[in-house]
UniProtKB/TrEMBL annotation:
GO cellular component, one term: plasma membrane
UniProt similarity note: Belongs to the sodium:solute symporter (SSF) (TC 2.A.21) family.
Pfam families xrefs: SSF (PF00474)
GO molecular function: symporter activity
Any one Gene Ontology BP term: sodium ion transport
Organism: Kushneria konosiri
The protein's name in its UniProt record: Sodium:solute symporter
Keyword DNA damage: no
Sequence intervals crossing the membrane: 6-25, 37-58, 78-96, 127-148, 168-187, 194-212, 242-265, 277-298, 318-336, 372-392, 398-418, 425-445, 451-472
Chief site of localization: membrane
Signal sequence interval, chain numbering: none
Length: 487
């Protein structure tokens, strides 16, 4: 093992120890409560809230998946990725307070529980909560598998080991600190990670912009394929070049509706200034939105990569000093971990909390043994996701991520987003979730319509079903007096 590999291992051990220590500290803060594990005791401040939102939103997609998409399809993905920053800022400024205040009034600790409570609770509410939990588990496990592969691939090339041991090492650390501290550990580690991500972005941009002439860069890409910089269609998002603009509404709903993102709004302190959160999100998000340009840089230098998802590892290996490569790779590994830990926490919460509440009318938050069940679920589901990744057939990271997150978005849009402004019925929520799942899943798997048309069409059909079915069925709403009234 050469000196730089030893340097990388030293960085890894040092930082992994620090992340585990943060998990230990956050376990003390949550005071051994299930609510502390699930929503960090509703204690997140402005910078930590923004840090965990941006880290989770950009992470593996921004540093591994998106450069691969740019390498394959061109600059249209740079434009598409840039829309995530304003979309997340809009979600913070104009949606977070609604969800935060209602969830606090009802005592909701997860998004499936929020859906059940806001639609009246009771036996039908438990059914809705159970279905929402199952969809969350299945679809976010799909997304988690893509994140584990991303972090495993990068870690393998960085440490000089195979994919399997690399993925096991990365997932093992995530399991430890998430199991210890729940959402608080996830948020605190995310905030540390996003600072490293921002520094990595600055270093990468400086290296690329100072190492090549921009005119030569442009002419080289045009010689390889004119579609890279001047697309006449919008692949992978659709047929039209304007299809990339669909990322803006998709990214807004991504931040506002998906359980592993929206839970952060519920976990922020009631007195947090959301305009400050929005400013932090805009600055960090805009900086990280430029990372996918790496794909164009590598396409110019190495136009014949067999696997586009290797664009970022190849870039670091060939165009960074080994010491800088080690540091930046560590930050990128941080980035991918920030989504993986969020997904694992959300899937474990749906399994250990929501399914338990759905299956028994006697189940209670913070009941005896609940925290042990929460932590056990983290371990079990982390191992299951790792095994799925090891034995799954080849897949493109970004596509698999959108299959999971986009289909879950189509399932949840009515019960989570529309219900904030127009209250539907439990039957409307149930049917909307199932229809959104079927429509988006089918279009992603079997229809050649681009990566965003499936989820967005699913969102439209699911929303129509939520409203129409709710108009035909009794609507029961939760009131602050803890009573359920029939409209």
């Amino acid at each position: 093992m050469d000196a730089y590999k030893l340097f990388n291992w030293g960085l890894l051990i040092l930082t992994f120890g620090f992340l585990i220590y943060l998990g230990y500290l956050s376990s003390k803060m949550m005071a051994k409560s299930e609510g502390g594990f699930l929503v960090a005791g509703r204690s997140l401040g402005a910078f930590v809230g923004a840090g965990t939102i941006v880290a989770t939103g950009f992470s593996g997609w921004g540093f591994m998946g998106s450069p691969g998409v740019v390498y394959q399809f061109g600059a249209v993905e740079v434009l598409g990725n840039f829309f995530f920053a304003p979309a997340m800022m809009i979600a913070v400024l104009y949606f977070a307070r609604f969800l935060q205040s209602r969830a606090a009034d009802m005592g909701s600790n997860t998004i499936p529980e929020y859906i059940a409570q806001i639609h009246g609770g009771g036996g039908m509410g438990r059914l809705v909560q159970g279905v929402a939990a199952l969809l969350t588990i299945v679809l976010l496990l799909v997304f988690l598998v893509s994140q584990i592969k991303a972090v495993g691939l990068l870690g393998a090339s960085w440490l000089g080991i195979d994919l399997g041991p690399s993925a096991l090492l990365m997932v093992g650390v995530i399991i430890i600190y998430t199991m210890l501290g729940g959402l608080a550990a996830v948020a605190w580690t995310d905030t540390v990670m996003v600072c490293g991500m921002a520094l990595a972005a600055v270093i990468i941009l400086i290296q690329m912009l100072t190492s090549v002439d921009l005119g030569e860069w442009e002419s080289s890409l045009n010689a390889i394929d004119p579609e890279l910089l001047n697309p006449t269609q919008g692949a992978p998002y659709g047929d039209s070049p304007w299809s990339a603009f669909l990322v803006l509404p998709y990214a807004f709903l991504f931040a506002a509706v998906l359980p592993y993102m929206a839970i952060r709004f519920m976990a922020m302190r009631p007195d947090v200034k959301l305009h400050k959160v929005g400013v932090y999100v805009a600055i960090l998000g805009a900086l990280l939105s430029l990372i996918p340009i790496v794909g164009l840089y590598v396409r110019m230098q190495m136009p014949d990569l067999a696997d586009p998802d290797n664009a970022m590892p190849v870039y670091l290996e060939h165009y960074m000093h080994p010491a800088l490569q080690g540091i930046i790779t560590l930050f990128i590994i941080f980035a991918m971990k920030s989504t993986a830990n969020s997904l694992l926490h959300t899937v474990a919460s749906a399994t250990s909390h929501d399914l338990r509440m759905a299956l028994s009318s006697e189940a209670r938050v913070d009941s005896k043994g609940a925290l042990f069940i929460n932590r056990t679920a983290v371990v079990v589901l982390g191992v299951i996701a790792l095994l799925i990744m090891l034995y799954a057939p080849p897949f493109m990271l970004s596509w698999l991520g959108i299959l999971g997150s986009g289909t879950l978005l189509a399932s949840m849009i009515g019960p989570v987003f529309i219900s904030t402004f127009w209250q539907g019925s439990a039957w409307g929520a149930l049917i909307a979730m199932l229809i959104g799942f079927v429509v988006s899943g089918y279009m992603m798997l079997f229809a050649n319509v681009g990566w965003l048309m499936g989820p967005l069409t699913g969102c439209l059909v699911s929303s129509i079903c939520y409203v129409s079915v709710s108009l035909m069925t009794p609507r029961r709403t939760w009131q602050k007096t803890s009573t359920c009234l029939t409209e």
